[in-house]
Design a protein that fits this description.
The chain is mainly α. It is built from nine helices and five strands. The strands form two sheets. The protein has a three-stranded parallel sheet, with helices on both faces. Strands 1-2 form a two-stranded antiparallel ribbon. The longest helix is centred in the middle third of the chain and has 16 residues, at 84-99. The protein starts with 10 loop residues before the first helix and ends with a helix. Keywords: Pyridoxal phosphate.
């Protein structure tokens, strides 16, 4: 098995590397693995060049590669019809059990998850409100977000019907700003956990404390 060492690459650099080694991709362990010939041919027919993903799990590159044993189960499951609502519930229970989370839900991806977050916080368990979305007339539809937590995919919240209310600036956010922003139209408070997040943001524990104190 061929192994190479790669530094973290920019998207442009990764694309340039892919031109030199168009038949290899990195697996989760950093090993370069051969792409099956039939898969390469499928992409070649479309005029799509495989790339070396040196950026981790990134939506732009398809997230992550699927393990062979998972693909095998997927191929078998695809031949059987089931009630998808029931499947989603059971899959969520299994995910929660494996991860230790309160609950789990399979969605289309990160952006789809953001849409569902907004919709769930706005409509709750009310089926009438669910059907009305993204029209939020008569509903609390504001999601509060710290300025330094703004990010490119936040429009997914708006796709779910939310209106974003910004507090603070690019350098600081203060607890009193969050307290003052929470009102009768507040559906949720967003908090971004990411390496580039400013440490001067209101910490998650304090955000939760303030939000819960407001009901």
């Amino acid at each position: 098995m061929l192994r190479i060492r790669l530094a973290i690459l920019s998207h442009r650099q990764a694309e340039q590397v892919a031109i030199m080694w168009p038949i290899f991709v990195l697996d989760s362990g950093g090993t370069v693995a051969n792409i099956p010939l039939d898969a390469r041919q499928a992409y070649q027919r479309l005029g799509v060049k495989p790339v070396i993903n040196a950026a981790g799990s990134v939506t732009k590159y398809g997230g992550t590669r699927t393990r062979p044993e998972v693909l095998e189960v997927m191929a078998g499951a695809a031949r059987i019809m089931v009630n998808v609502d029931e499947l989603n519930r059971k899959a969520g229970e299994e995910i929660a059990k494996l991860t230790g989370a309160e609950a789990g839900f399979v969605c289309s991806g990160a952006a789809g998850g953001l849409v569902l977050q907004a919709a769930a916080c706005i409509a709750g368990k009310d089926p009438v409100k669910m059907r009305q979305l993204p029209d939020t007339t008569g509903m609390a539809d504001e999601i509060i977000i710290q300025n330094m937590h703004r990010f490119p995919y936040e429009q997914a919240y708006r796709a779910g019907g939310a209106k974003l209310v910004e507090i603070g600036d690019s350098r600081y956010s203060h607890p009193w700003e969050l307290e003052g922003a929470i009102g009768e139209n507040t559906a949720a408070v967003a908090f971004l956990c990411a390496p580039m997040t400013n440490r001067r943001a209101i910490p998650l524990a304090q955000v939760c404390e303030i939000a819960h104190s407001k009901g």
